[in-house]
Design goal:
It comes from Clostridium manihotivorum. InterPro entries: N_methyl_site. The protein is built from 2 helices and 8 strands, in the order ααββββββββ. The chain has a single domain, classed as minor pseudopilin epsh fold (3-Layer(bab) Sandwich), CATH 3.55.40.10. The radius of gyration is 32 Å and the shape is elongated. The relative contact order is 0.12. The chain is an alpha+beta fold. Strand 6 and strand 7 form a beta hairpin.
Length: 163
């Protein structure tokens, strides 16, 4: 058996078997970079897919929130026996009954909303019987350059949605 006077294990590091490589060969470097690029591209595709799903979900939420606000406003105006207004500001939608602000929807950055009516733009009026007084089209502009159109009619809660 081979013996060393010094048993601290330092003789192992002087052996040729455990010597450290000084660098990578060109082929090894190319293989490592290729594997890294594959991982990065898979991660990027997953990230873009999740981001698109999140945007689609938020678009659906905005449509539902605005439709629910219209429905709520008609019921609230009828119950309170007061006229109400839905104000479509650039990045938010506000419901006022009388002079009190009842509800507000704030939109994400990049989303804009407007209301085009034949008489008053950006203002939907609900009378004290809970009927929509001004009919028009709600336009929601989305950051990906698409547009959601919601059409309302007088005295009806039916809202036609077109994307």
């Amino acid at each position: 058996m081979f013996s060393h006077s010094n048993n601290d294990g330092s003789y192992l590091f002087k052996s040729k078997c455990l010597s450290i490589k000084k660098g990578l060969t060109l082929i090894e470097l190319v293989v490592y970079i290729a594997i890294l690029l594959i991982f990065l591209s898979v991660f990027d595709m997953c990230y873009k897919g999740v981001k698109k799903l999140d945007e689609d979900k938020y678009k659906e939420e905005v449509k539902n929130e605005i439709h629910n606000l219209i429905t709520y406003s008609t019921c609230a105006c009828k119950n309170n026996k007061q006229d109400g207004r839905i104000i479509f500001d650039k990045d938010r939608v506000i419901l006022k009954i009388g002079e009190d602000k009842k509800k507000e929807i704030d939109l994400r950055k990049g989303y804009t909303v407007s209301f085009n009516a034949s008489s008053i733009n950006n203002l939907m009026v609900i009378n004290n019987n809970g009927k929509i007084y001004t009919a028009g089209t709600i336009l929601i502009n989305v950051p990906d350059k698409s547009r959601i159109t919601m059409s309302t009619s007088v005295d009806s809660l039916y809202v036609r949605v077109k994307e």
